[in-house]
Specification:
The chain has 171 residues and is mainly α. The protein folds into two domains: 3-73, Rna Polymerase Sigma Factor, Chain: A; 80-169, Orthogonal Bundle (Arc Repressor Mutant, subunit A). The protein is built from nine helices and no strands.
Length: 171
């Protein structure tokens, strides 16, 4: 496969691959790196790829998902802010309320940052990145039941810690 064939066959899916990686990894830097890693892997294996791939888009999407799951499985340390960068504020016309919301989001980010890595990973994947339980299973190797239990306990812990902070501030 020459350069032009490669570009014609694989490059049109760049934006879709980025969206998949961002959804799974939760931040722009890692998503961009993963797209680059996907294209590098495809380029290195271009001569070994079957010439009659029926659905190139599905092939590329599956490849990037698997690479993302490998990264997530490795439990590599990531900065707390990068893991929760998907937490956005809903627009509010009241500037005071917007400051309060921003502060609450920062408090939740800090609480998530204090959780064990596995709990951080699961809550960010499910609640921030909106990953399905099946995607979380593939990334973590845990069963759906374990994920639901961990998620429930993690959410409860976040709520309790947040309420402690909020009650302390309102005294």
């Amino acid at each position: 496969m020459d350069v032009n064939d490669f570009k014609r066959k694989f490059l049109p899916y760049h934006l879709k691959l980025y969206r998949v990686a961002f959804r799974l990894l939760g931040n722009t830097q890692d998503a961009e790196d993963m797209v680059q890693e996907t294209y590098l892997k495809l380029w290195k294996k271009r001569e070994e790829l079957p010439p009659d791939i029926e659905n190139t888009e599905a092939y590329c999407t599956t490849l990037i998902k698997n690479l993302c799951f490998d990264v997530l499985r490795s439990n590599r340390p990531n900065e707390n802010n990068r893991a929760t960068e998907g937490l956005d504020l809903i627009g509010d016309d009241n500037p005071m309320r917007e400051v309060e919301l921003r502060d609450e989001v920062n408090q939740v980010k800090r609480i998530i940052g204090t959780l064990p890595k596995q709990q951080q990973q699961i809550v960010v994947m499910r609640d921030v990145n909106d990953c399905s339980y099946e995607e979380i299973e593939q990334a973590t190797g845990l069963s759906a039941i374990n994920i639901r239990v961990l998620l429930s306990r993690t959410r409860k812990k976040i709520r309790e810690q947040f309420n402690i902070i909020r009650n302390y501030e309102h005294r």
